[in-house]
Amino acid sequence: MDPTRRDFLASGAAVAVPFAARGVSSRPEAASRPGLLAGKRAVVYGAAGAIGGAVSRAFAREGAQLFLAGRTFDKVDALAGELSQAGASATAAAVDALDRAAVEKHLDEVVRAAGAIDISFNLIGLGGDQGQPLTAMTREAFALPIENAMRTHFITATAASRHMQKRGGGVILALTAQVARKPYVASGGFGVACAAIEGLWRQLAIELGPEGVRLITLRSSGSPDAPGVAAAITEHAKAAGVTLAAFEARIAEKTMLKRMPKMAEIANAAVLAASDQASSITAAVLNCTCGEIAD
C-alpha cells in the first residue's frame, strides 16, 4: 500500500569509504550489553529513515553492535551519536545500497573491524508513485520500485551472505507490506515489488540454509507513525475521495486488532527474528499486519 514502512532516501550518489576516511564515524566501542542480540554484529541500510531508526534503536537496546549505513551521512552519523550516548556501539557510514561495489567495500570494512556480520537488514526506500491505476502509469513508473527492490536486496543480501557462509551462520531480514499478498487499488508497482522481495528471500533461504544462514521477511500493514506511510496513505485517500483520517480508519477496520502496527512493534519483531530465539525460522514471512491478513 505505501512506499512504506520505509522513508524514501533522497537521491544522489554515495559510496562506502574506509572507516578511517571522511564519511565514516566510529565511536569508542561500548562494553558488551545484555539483550537478545548481545554480541551480534548488525548492518542496517537506510538506518536514518523512520523505520530504520526504530530498528536501529531496538537492536541497540538488545545489545547489538551496529553498523549504520545510508546515503545521507550526517543523518546516519547523528543516529550513531545518539545510540553511542546511550551506551551502544554504533558506527556510521555513507553507503549507496544500490551500488554493489560500495556495499561490498563497506562490508569488507565491517568484517575487518568487527570480525564478522551476524545480521543484515535493508530498509531503504524503493521509490515509485502510487495513487493511479496501472492503466494510467508508464512502464517506467510501474517498474521503478520493482527494479530498485530487486537491485538493492539482491546486492545487500548476497554480499552479506558471502560473509555469513564463511562463518556458518547469520540472519538476513527484509520488510514488505500487506500488498505483497493482498492487492490494493492504485498501489502502483509497490505491491509487486514486495511480492518479488518475498520470492527472492525464499530462493535465497533454500540456497543458504545448509550454511546456517536464515532469511526472514517482516510483512507490515503500514505504520501510521512513519512519515512515508502517511504520505502514501494521503495519496490513496485522494484517489478514494476521502480524508486521510477516514482512509486510515478504513485500513484499521480491516485488521483484527482494529489498528495499524507502530514502528516500534515492527522493530521489536525484527529483534525477535534476528535473535537466536528464532533459530528454527527461515524462508518465512512474519505477519506484523495486526491481523489484516490471516495466515
Word description of this protein:
By secondary structure, the chain is of the alpha/beta class. It is built from 8 helices and 8 strands, in the order E-E-H-E-H-E-H-E-H-E-H-E-H-H-H-E. The chain has an 8-stranded mixed beta sheet, with helices on both faces. Helix 3 packs parallel to helix 4. The model is unreliable at 1-22 (pLDDT under 50).
List the helices and strands and how they pair.
Layout: E1 24-26, E2 41-45, H1 50-61, E3 65-70, H2 73-85, E4 89-94, H3 100-114, E5 119-122, H4 139-167, E6 170-177, H5 190-208, E7 213-220, H6 227-240, H7 244-253, H8 263-274, E8 284-288
Parallel strand pairs: 2-3, 2-5, 3-4, 5-6, 6-7, 7-8
Antiparallel strand pairs: 1-4
Global morphology: globular
Structural class: alpha/beta
Ranges with pLDDT <50 over ≥5 residues? 1-22
Mean pLDDT, to the nearest integer, reads: 89
Give a short account of the largest sheet. Answer: 8 strands, mixed
| CATH architecture name | 3-Layer(aba) Sandwich
Helix count from the secondary structure assignment: 8
The H/E string reads EEHEHEHEHEHEHHHE
CATH class: Alpha Beta
Radius of gyration: 18 Å
Spatial strand order of the main sheet: 1-4-3-2-5-6-7-8
CATH superfamily: NAD(P)-binding Rossmann-like Domain
Percent of residues in beta strands? 15-25%
Number of strands: 8
Kindly state the percentage of residues in helix. 40-55%
